[in-house]
């Protein structure tokens, strides 16, 4: 198979250490990071981490040039792994793609076969991208929360940062599983959207300017938090006895101004969620995403754009003007 030059969104080092320069340019397969498996990309997701990389915040990308995109779906062109057959539909996320290794914002991606996950039956390429690393993180959170005893009859579940990609899928899955979901968002215009994907109640975030109380009225059986910082501390103080909290983001800061009181007086369980999971766990959770965790509103949550729209959409995500998921279409 002959592959000619193809377009990719590539980041280049900024002048004198400044903001990276991102542009769409023509490249060849030989320009991609090394790997033994070539995937023809169908869709790639837009994530907050991709926006940070574009802006050069946090030194997420250290080596340039780099093709962004931390998750993708596509079909196998060829692989050193005989278990990955040409034309097979797959997803790749994590393992440093889009950061340390060229990612999904190109018509082709070259990766290691150990990173490639065949899609479970029933999930197509567009839906897989709409779920992406964000949706996987949401499902992984619920997987471990239910492992720790969370169930619909235990009480309502709070989802913070509700208009984000992780939170949207979390709301959808929780509602489908029979949970009562409270979505917390500071965007009044998004309330109808949030109710449409499964939120039963929508609340504005509290004033977090002051110190959080060690304990507050117990409201939540569970919390899926993608904000961190003072928001997570506030949520922990209001979790019911034996409740479960999944922490998977730090958009609100990396510090956690809390006390041990929720843990030693109410038995609250705080779970750290790292989506860069080993492959057996990925397969298990993606299997749930194809069955009992299947999102019902993927089309509503994820809009599709083309490659020229990518930089402006990433900037919107960085500016907190973005709702739900967006995927860029390649083929």
Automatic annotation (TrEMBL):
Q: Native species of this protein? A: Bordetella genomosp. 11
In terms of CDD domains, this protein maps to: MDR_yhdh_yhfp
- Protein name as catalogued: Zinc-binding dehydrogenase
Task: Fetch the SUPFAM superfamilies from UniProt.
Answer: GroES-like, NAD(P)-binding Rossmann-fold domains
An example Gene Ontology molecular-function term = acryloyl-CoA reductase (NADPH) activity
Superkingdom assignment: Bacteria
InterPro entries assigned to the protein according to its UniProt record, in alphabetical order: Acrylyl-CoA_reductase_AcuI (IPR014188), ADH-like_C (IPR013149), ADH-like_N (IPR013154), ER (IPR020843), GroES-like_sf (IPR011032), NAD(P)-bd_dom_sf (IPR036291), Zn-ADH-like_protein (IPR051397)
Q: Where is the Enoyl reductase (ER) domain?
A: 22-328
């Amino acid at each position: 198979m002959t592959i000619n030059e193809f377009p990719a969104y590539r980041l280049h080092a900024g002048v004198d250490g400044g903001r990276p320069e991102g542009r769409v340019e023509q490249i060849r397969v030989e320009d991609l990071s090394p790997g033994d498996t070539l995937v023809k990309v169908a869709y790639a997701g837009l994530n907050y981490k991709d926006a940070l990389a574009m802006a050069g915040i946090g030194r997420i990308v250290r080596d340039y040039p780099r093709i962004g995109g931390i998750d993708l779906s596509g079909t196998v062109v060829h692989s050193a792994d005989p278990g990955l057959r040409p034309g097979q539909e797959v997803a790749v996320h994590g393992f440093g793609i889009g950061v340390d290794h060229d990612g999904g914002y190109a018509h082709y991606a070259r990766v290691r076969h150990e990173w490639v996950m065949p899609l479970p039956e029933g999930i197509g390429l567009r839906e897989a991208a709409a779920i992406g690393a964000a949706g996987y993180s949401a499902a992984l959170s619920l997987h471990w929360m239910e492992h720790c005893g969370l169930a619909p009859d235990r009480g309502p579940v709070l989802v913070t940062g509700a208009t984000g990609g992780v939170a949207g899928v979390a709301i959808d899955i929780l509602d489908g599983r029979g949970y009562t979901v409270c979505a917390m968002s500071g965007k009044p215009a998004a309330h109808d959207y949030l109710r449409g994907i499964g939120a039963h109640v929508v609340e504005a975030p509290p004033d977090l300017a002051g110190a959080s109380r060690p304990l507050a009225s117990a409201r939540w059986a569970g919390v899926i938090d993608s904000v961190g910082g003072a928001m997570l501390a506030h949520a922990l103080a209001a979790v019911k006895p034996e409740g479960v909290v999944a922490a998977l983001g730090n958009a609100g800061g990396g510090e956690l101004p809390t006390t041990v009181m929720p843990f030693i007086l109410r038995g609250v369980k705080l779970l750290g969620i790292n989506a860069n999971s080993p492959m057996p766990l990925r397969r298990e959770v993606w299997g749930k995403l194809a069955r009992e965790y299947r999102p019902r509103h993927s089309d509503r949550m994820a809009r599709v754009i083309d490659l020229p729209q990518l930089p402006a959409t990433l900037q919107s995500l960085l500016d907190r003007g973005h709702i739900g998921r967006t995927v860029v279409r390649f083929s």
